[in-house]
Amino acid sequence: MGDAGSAGQLDESLRHLLDELTPSVLSVINKLNDGGNRVWIVGGAIRDALKDLVPHDIDIATDASPEEVIALIPNA
Question: Is pLDDT of 63 > 70?
Answer without folding.
Answer: yes
